[in-house]
């Protein structure tokens, strides 16, 4: 067996590639072309990462060096996953080669550890941005940028652009009439004041921020005449509108109508007189007068009336009247077209302004030595297409790369594809040196046009459509059809929904075709449910009710699945997240929200951020005050005032004022010793240990979990874990705390603006045991056992607003603005095209949402009314998939939940360190002084131990812990702890102590007879009225652990789990009798009164010494 045969067998037998996957990986096996462009359509769950990794492996096996293979993904996480998969396959292949004792060049490289390590280190697997950055750094002189340039994120770039625009506009505002003309178009509305609305600034910023998308069009427009712009505008509208011709047709028809219409006085009669008695040229000039009759033919919403405003019985006259509104509309549109043409004359002004802004932005970036994400594309594109040395650059790149592998190809934008096209163009012309070296280069493109959902980021699905449809001898296409992710029922439902709704139509350039998937799952067992729960009312009334229904479903599903993180709620956008967050917090459902309420606004997150603020600069009084008054420390405003009013200088002869932290260290070393010791320790460690460990230590030192978190696994617990992941991600990129803190602040700012910012390979929203609430865009590339779409009916086509847009296909500027509340022909055409584009993308978004589900899929529809804009709802209703109006929900009781097999670790193992915090005990109002007791962790653990043991004894007594269940004691203890341990005290040591004591009780025959006695009451609650010493009526209540009935005699037992401590057994017994005398007498009184029995005996069961003592 040679290496080729072994490898092919390895792909099928070890990596389990199906036939179509294998054909795609081996797509160039014929070797009959000088180069190959291989396009693989890989639907959701079809194993595309396996195919990509296998393809990479094939190239290595064929002797290609890893430095000559470039694999491109769109995220760092995906790049990491791809490399991890390739390395895994490499090691598995190495094992096969060693097992078969195969000897060849490739096998020698894989067998030798050092050679294998060099091979792995040489792999060029990166994001598209990283790849483009490497090209620019390879040619810094030609690109004209600082060779040590930094790539700034979206927030930094936006701040820089805002600064440049504001400065330039301010300079020109008074002197440049062109700016005034542009502002007049926007009704002198300069900025949007935080709302997305019609304004000058948002239109300008959209183009500057997306310069890589619009730069070529703007450059072309810069050299375009006004006449050509108007021609382009007419071509865009696509219909000829001539005002004189339209008016003549209207006049002719109105004259015909006038001859048969005999009404003497009406608004319509006035219109007839104006039209028939005024020459065409005069009407054309008198546009305002013509438009005064608009209410005769249009509704208040400015739509053409369906029925005429006047009633006529005669059929002939009726028919004549019916034609007039359409002709009037034609004239109105012709008038409005003139408005569009007038606005188009502003194009030259606007283009000049944009070019001056972009030149200043480029200059500012050059001064700072930075590039934005978009600049990586424009600089690389210009290097490869416009630079005088471009042929040398392309030759250099060609010598470095023989193969490209591109993941998520459907998300490629035109500039990115132009770059790949230029890098590989010569391969398909036979004009490279590769042919002489017998190298057959390939570009391997993997994607799924049905998952192209990033149009708002300039992704263009037409690129993939074009490659699939154009005849090209170098292109081969493959389709993967088997779905390995989802259950049979889910795959079949998705097929049913989309097979007729996704059709590739040439008249719709953004449409895509649909090929039915084949489920790998043959047994089935999945769930697909469409729930119609029609709810009346406005949004504020309807969505909370819907959220309640969804919460009920989630609580039921949690009984079946291991983690809250197995469940995901997916939405079209994040506008309604806060309704669900509020309900989930009430229902104690922990969640991670990618959007909605700002994560950084949560109290527990704010308090941890205060520690970071202090560590960044402890001598900033605001930072100091924030931490000093934090609930993590028992200080109040009086304490802070004391420090403020203390000695204001460090030295007697110093004129420099001290910070509050300096004053604390100088004057209050004893009084606030705990605070000073902790903060000094943190500052000493700040630059010596990782930041995530530093914050974990701070959380332990201050007992932040005990103070800020209400329960393990709850929302506050999840939020702190999420913050720690974020800190870990950011800290991996920098070792300097100031840089770290700056990046953290930029992340916070980005989250507030709902912008994207790279925070590392580990996902900020990864599964940490919490329900996922996210948009479908955020869920792309993920999968979940359960997917719920709560608002299928809310996925509607958005109404497009006014402003300035650029159409790249026709290279024109679109000045979109209503005139007298009426849409102009240009605005109508733009909205029509964008509606078509958005409808197609919404279909694809729905497909992506549904194909995230592995086991169960739930769709909720809460509105009954259908319309053309509700794309998802229309797809569901047209599919005829059965719908239901209710769900059967099964939620376990507390006891069932405790006794069910454990899935999550309920014992808190983060820290045992607790901070002594003064707690106030409740007292009666009549008492003058409040009793203060210090928090003692030993006492608190003892109480928790007692609570858990009591629950165990109750379950044994109720027959809920059978003999066979007693082996599960660890899991049962941990489950009880997860419910009752509000301060995270239950660690492994305490669990062991509880288990030991419980097992001892189980072995004690006398105590077990009492616990298991069936003629008894367990955990019996009571509430009685009783007169106190002052004759006042009081409510006395309590819970008796065990009441046994034996004829006329009643025995009351109370379990006490106190430890003996350092005293003898006899002393301990006497102490317990004395301590609990009052309590047991209260129990005796309650039993006598409730059960009318005189013979009542009360006992303490001391579990630590296994004694039963009568009191």
How would you describe this protein?
With 1111 residues, this protein is an alpha/beta fold. It folds into 6 domains: 252 residues, Rossmann fold (3-Layer(aba) Sandwich), CATH 3.40.50; 115 residues; 103 residues; 186 residues, P-loop containing nucleotide triphosphate hydrolases (Rossmann fold, 3-Layer(aba) Sandwich), CATH 3.40.50; 147 residues, PCRA, domain 4, CATH 1.10.486.10; 173 residues, Lambda Exonuclease, Chain A (Alpha-Beta Complex). The chain contains 46 helices and 25 strands. The strands form 7 sheets. It has a 6-stranded parallel sheet, sandwiched between helices. Strand 22 and strand 23 form a beta hairpin. Helix 14 runs antiparallel to helix 19, helix 28 crosses helix 29 and helix 41 crosses helix 42. The chain is globular and about 120 Å long. The chain starts with a helix and ends with a strand.
Give a concise summary.
By secondary structure, the chain is an alpha/beta fold. It is 50% helix and 12% strand.
List the helices and strands and how they pair.
Elements: H1 3-14, H2 19-25, E1 36-41, H3 48-61, E2 69-73, H4 76-100, H5 105-111, H6 113-121, E3 124-127, H7 128-138, H8 140-143, E4 150-151, H9 154-172, H10 177-185, H11 200-209, H12 211-221, H13 226-237, H14 243-258, H15 267-277, H16 280-285, H17 287-291, H18 294-297, H19 315-344, H20 347-368, E5 370-371, H21 373-385, H22 390-400, E6 403-406, H23 414-424, E7 442-447, H24 462-469, E8 475-479, E9 482-483, H25 488-498, E10 518-519, E11 527-532, H26 539-557, E12 567-571, H27 577-586, E13 591-593, H28 603-616, H29 621-628, H30 637-644, H31 660-667, H32 673-685, H33 691-702, H34 704-708, H35 715-731, H36 737-752, E14 771-775, H37 776-779, E15 784-789, E16 803-807, E17 812-816, H38 825-850, E18 853-861, H39 871-879, H40 894-899, E19 918-920, E20 932-934, H41 937-957, H42 969-980, H43 988-1003, H44 1005-1011, E21 1016-1027, E22 1033-1046, E23 1049-1056, H45 1065-1075, H46 1077-1091, E24 1096-1102, E25 1107-1110
Parallel strand pairs: 1-7, 1-8, 2-3, 2-6, 4-5, 6-7, 9-10, 11-18, 12-14, 12-15, 13-14, 15-18, 23-24
Antiparallel strand pairs: 16-17, 19-20, 21-22, 22-23, 24-25
Helix pairs in contact: 1-4, 2-3, 3-4, 5-6, 7-21, 9-11, 9-20, 12-20, 12-21, 14-19, 21-23, 26-27, 28-29, 33-35, 41-42, 41-43, 42-43
């Amino acid at each position: 067996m040679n290496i080729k045969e072994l490898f092919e067998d390895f792909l099928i037998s070890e990596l389990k590639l199906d036939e179509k996957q294998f054909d795609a990986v081996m797509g160039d096996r014929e070797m009959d072309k000088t180069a190959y462009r291989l396009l693989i359509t890989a639907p959701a769950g079809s194993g595309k990462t396996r195919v990509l990794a296998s393809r990479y492996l094939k190239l290595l096996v064929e002797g290609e060096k890893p430095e000559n293979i470039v694999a491109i993904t769109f995220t760092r996480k995906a790049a990491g996953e791809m490399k991890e998969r390739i390395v895994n396959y490499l090691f598995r292949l190495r094992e096969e080669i060693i097992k078969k004792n195969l000897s060849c060049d490739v096998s020698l490289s894989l067998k030798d550890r050092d050679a294998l390590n060099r091979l792995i280190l040489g792999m060029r697997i990166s994001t598209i941005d990283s790849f483009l950055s490497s090209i620019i750094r390879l040619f810094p002189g030609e690109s004209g940028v600082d060779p040590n340039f930094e790539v700034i994120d979206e927030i930094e770039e936006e701040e820089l652009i805002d600064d440049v625009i504001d400065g330039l506009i301010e300079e020109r505002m008074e002197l440049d009439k062109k700016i005034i003309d542009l502002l007049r178009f926007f009704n002198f509305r300069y900025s949007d004041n935080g709302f997305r609305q019609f304004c000058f600034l948002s239109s300008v910023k959209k183009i500057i921020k997306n310069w890589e998308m619009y730069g070529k069009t703007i450059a072309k427009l810069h050299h375009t005449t006004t006449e050509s712009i108007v021609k382009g505008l007419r071509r865009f509208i696509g219909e000829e509108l001539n005002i004189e011709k339209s008016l003549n047709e209207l006049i002719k028809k109105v004259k015909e109508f006038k001859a048969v219409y005999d009404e003497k006085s009406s608004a319509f009669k006035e219109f007839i007189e104006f039209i028939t008695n005024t020459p065409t040229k005069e009407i054309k000039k008198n546009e305002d007068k013509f438009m005064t009759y608009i209410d005769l033919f249009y509704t208040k919403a400015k739509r053409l009336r369906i029925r005429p405003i006047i009633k006529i019985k005669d059929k002939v006259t009726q028919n004549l009247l019916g034609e007039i509104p359409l002709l009037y509309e034609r004239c109105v549109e012709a008038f409005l077209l003139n408005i569009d043409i007038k606005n188009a004359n502003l194009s030259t002004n606007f283009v000049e302004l944009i070019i001056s802004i972009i030149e200043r932005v480029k200059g500012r970036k050059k001064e700072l030595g930075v590039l934005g994400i978009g600049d990586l594309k424009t600089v690389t594109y210009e290097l490869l297409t416009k630079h005088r040395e471009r042929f040398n650059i392309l030759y250099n790149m060609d010598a470095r790369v023989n193969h490209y592998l591109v993941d998520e190809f459907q998300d490629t934008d035109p500039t990115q594809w132009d770059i790949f096209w230029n890098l590989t163009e010569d391969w398909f012309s036979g004009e490279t040196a590769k042919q002489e070296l017998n190298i057959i280069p390939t570009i391997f493109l993997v994607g799924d046009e049905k998952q192209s959902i990033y149009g708002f980021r300039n992704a263009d699905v037409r690129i993939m459509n074009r490659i699939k449809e154009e005849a090209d001898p170098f292109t081969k296409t493959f389709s993967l059809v088997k779905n390995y992710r989802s259950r049979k029922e889910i795959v079949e439902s998705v097929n049913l929904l989309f097979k007729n709704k996704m059709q590739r139509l040439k008249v719709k350039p953004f449409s895509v075709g649909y090929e039915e998937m084949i489920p790998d799952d043959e047994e089935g067992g999945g769930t697909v449910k469409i729930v119609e729960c029609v709810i009346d009312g406005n949004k504020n009334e309807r969505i909370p009710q819907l959220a309640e229904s969804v919460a009920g479903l989630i609580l039921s599903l949690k009984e079946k699945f291991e983690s809250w993180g197995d469940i995901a709620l997916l939405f079209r956008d994040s506008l309604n997240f806060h309704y669900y967050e509020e309900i989930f917090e009430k229902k104690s459902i922990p969640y991670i929200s990618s959007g909605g309420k700002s994560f950084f606004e949560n109290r527990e997150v704010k308090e941890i951020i205060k520690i970071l603020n202090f560590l960044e600069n402890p001598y900033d009084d605001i930072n100091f005050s924030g931490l000093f008054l934090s609930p993590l420390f028992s200080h109040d405003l009086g304490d802070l005032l004391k420090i403020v009013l203390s000695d204001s200088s460090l030295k007697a002869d110093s004129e420099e004022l001290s910070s509050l932290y300096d004053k604390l260290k100088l004057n209050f070393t004893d009084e606030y010793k705990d605070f000073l010791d902790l903060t000094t320790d943190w500052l000493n460690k700040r630059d010596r240990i990782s930041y995530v460990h530093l914050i974990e230590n701070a959380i332990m030192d201050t007992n932040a979990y005990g103070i800020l978190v209400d329960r393990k696994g709850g929302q506050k617990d999840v939020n702190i874990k999420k913050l720690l992941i974020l800190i870990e991600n950011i800290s991996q990129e920098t070792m300097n705390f100031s840089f770290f803190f700056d990046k953290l602040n930029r992340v916070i700012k980005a989250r507030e603006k709902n912008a994207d910012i790279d925070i590392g390979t580990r996902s900020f929203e990864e599964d940490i045991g919490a329900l996922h609430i996210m948009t479908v865009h955020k869920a792309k590339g993920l999968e979940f056992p359960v997917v719920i779409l709560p608002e299928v009916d809310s996925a509607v086509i958005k109404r497009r607003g006014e402003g300035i847009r650029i159409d790249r296909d026709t290279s024109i500027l679109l000045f979109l603005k209503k005139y007298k509340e009426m849409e102009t022909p240009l605005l109508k055409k733009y909205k029509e095209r964008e509606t078509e584009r958005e409808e197609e993308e919404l279909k694809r978004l729905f497909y992506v949402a549904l194909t995230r589900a592995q086991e169960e899929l739930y769709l909720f529809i809460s509105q009954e009314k259908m319309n053309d804009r509700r794309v998802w709802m229309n797809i569901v209703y047209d599919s005829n998939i059965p719908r239901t109006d209710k769900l059967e929900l099964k939620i376990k009781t507390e006891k069932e939940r405790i006794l069910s097999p454990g899935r999550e670790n309920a014992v808190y193992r983060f820290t045992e360190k607790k901070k002594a915090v003064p707690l106030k005990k409740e007292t009666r109002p009549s008492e003058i002084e409040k009793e203060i007791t210090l928090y003692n962790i030993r006492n608190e653990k003892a109480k928790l131990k007692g609570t858990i043991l009591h629950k165990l004894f109750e379950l044994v007594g109720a027959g809920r812990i059978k003999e066979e269940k007693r082996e599960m004691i660890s899991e049962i203890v941990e489950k009880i702890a997860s419910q009752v341990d509000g301060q995270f005290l239950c660690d492994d040591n305490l669990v062991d102590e509880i288990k030991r004591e419980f097992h001892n009780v189980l072995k004690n025959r006398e105590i077990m007879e009492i616990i298991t006695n069936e003629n008894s009451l367990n955990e019996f609650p009571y509430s009685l009225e009783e007169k106190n010493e002052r004759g006042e009526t009081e409510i006395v209540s309590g819970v008796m652990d065990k009441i046994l009935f034996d004829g006329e005699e009643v025995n009351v037992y109370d379990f006490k789990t106190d430890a003996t401590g350092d005293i003898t057994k006899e002393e301990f017994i006497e102490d317990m009798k004395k301590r609990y005398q009052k309590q047991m007498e209260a129990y005796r009184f309650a039993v006598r009164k409730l059960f009318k029995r005189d013979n009542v005996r009360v006992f303490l069961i001391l579990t630590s010494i296994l004694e039963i003592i009568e009191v």
